[in-house]
Write a structure and sequence with these properties.
The protein has 403 residues and is mainly alpha-helical. It contains 14 helices and no strands. It has one domain: Growth Hormone, Chain: A (Up-down Bundle). Helix 1 packs antiparallel against helix 4, helix 3 runs antiparallel to helix 6 and helix 7 crosses helix 12. Keywords: Membrane, Transmembrane, Transmembrane helix.
Amino acid sequence: MKRNLNGQSRLLLAVNGLFVLAGALSGTFLNVYLWKVKQDFAMIGWFTFSQQIALGLTFWIAGKWVKERDKMVSLRLGIVVSGLFYLLVLWAGARTVEYIWPLGFLFGIGSGLFWLAFNVVYFEVTDVDTRDLFNGWIGILGSVIGILGPWTSGVIISVMKGDLGYRVIFTVSLVIYGVGILLSFWLKKRKKGGPYHWLGPFRHFEKDSPWRQAIPASAAHGLREGVFSFLGTLLVFISTSAERKVGQFSLVTSLVSLVSFWAVGKWLHIRYRYVGMLIGAVLITGVIIPLLWNVNYLTLIFFGIGTSLFMPLYLLPVISSVFDLIGKSEDTVEQRVELIVLRELSIMSGRLVGTLLFIIVFGWFPRMTTVTWLMLGLGASPILSWIAIRKLFKPRADAPDTV
C-alpha cells in the first residue's frame, strides 16, 4: 500500500504550516487581548459567532470561483484577508472591542477563502491510502507550531510593557502571511471543474445516502469546536492572569499532541477507525470532568494534556472518512467542491448552535459552574458524532479503492 506523500502534498503542508503559525502566534492571544479590554464572555462568544457565519457563507459563495476558476487565487486571497484583519487590529488597538462584528466577519472571510481552497487541493493531492498520513502530518505540524508559537508570544507579551508585545506578535504574523503567499506560487495550478451548483451542497439527504450519516456527524463535531476554539486558553488566562502561563499551556499540550498525532497517523489504519474514534470521543469527554470541581491551572493542564493525547483518535477518522466519501465515485469527485462546502456548512451549523447555547445559558446563569457544565455537555458531542457516522466505518474497510 502506498504510504508516501508527493511533492505537492509536502508543499501544501508547508503553506498550511505558515498560515497556522501566523494564527498560532497571534490568534492564541487574540481573545486574551479582547478579554483584557473588556471582561465579557458574551462578547468573545459573539466574536466567534460572527467568524463562523462569515466562514460558512464564504465557503458557499466562493465555491463557484474555486470550482470554475482558480483555487490558488482563493488560497492566496484568504492569506491576504487574514493579514488585513491583524493590520486592522493593530490600527484599532483597544477599540477592537467596538468592532467585534465587522472584524469577526473579516476574520471568517479570510479563513473561509483559505480553508476552502486548501481542502479542495488537499483532496486532489491525496488519496484514500495517504489521507490519514497527510492528516497526521497536519496534526504534527500544528503541534510543533503550537509548541513554539504561543510560548514565544507569551514570553514576548510578558516581557514587553503594556500592549507593545501584542503589537509585535501581530506584526510578525503579517510578515509570515506574506511568506506564505510567496511560497504558494510553487503550488501547481489545479484543473478547473465543471459548473458550480449553488444548491448542490443541499441535495445529499436522499434515503440510503451515506451523507445522511456524515452531515450530522460533522454538525456534532462543530458543536464542540465552536466554544472550545476560544474557551480553553481563555480559562487559563482567567485562572492565572499571566500570558506566560497561556504560552506554557500551549507548549505542554502541543508537545503531547505532536507525539499523539504522529502515532495515530502512522498506525491508525482504516480498519481501526470504528474503535479508535469511539475511544477518542469518550476519553476527550472524560478529561473535562475534573473541571466540574475546580477550575485552576492544574485541572486545566490535565484537561489540555488529555485532550491533546486522545483527540487524534477521534479527529483523524471523522475527517478522513468524510473525505473518502467525496472520493467514492467519479460523480462525487466531480462534485468535490460542493461536498466540501456541504461538510463546512454542517460543521458551521454545529459551531453556531454550540456558541449560541453558551451565550444564552451563560447569560441566564453567569457563573463559572455554568461554563464548566456547558464544557462537559458540548464536549460530549464527539460521542454523538461517532454514533452518527459509525455505520460508514465497517463497510469502508472492505470497500473498493476510492480516489
